[in-house]
Amino acid sequence: MLTPEQRALRAEIGAHEKWAREPDRPAATAKARAGFLAKLEAEVDPAGVLPPEERARRAEHLRQAHMKRMALASSRARAAKKGGADAP
Q: Is the pTM here over 0.85, yes or no?
């Protein structure tokens, strides 16, 4: 049984090996990015009634909110690890 630290290290090794062999990182993740954006567009316009430009604009705001939410969670986790006042 691996500890959480060992599992994380094993995952990091795998990620480094994958990206060492991948010639075009943006192309390798394009399908996932497109799927995520399509999910966000469906979330902001489930009936599909907005013009494509407006739907894309709103989906981009949702994407940015998602990224900021992850950054906040990361910041809090780092603070908690250090025992800081910003810990949740």
A: no
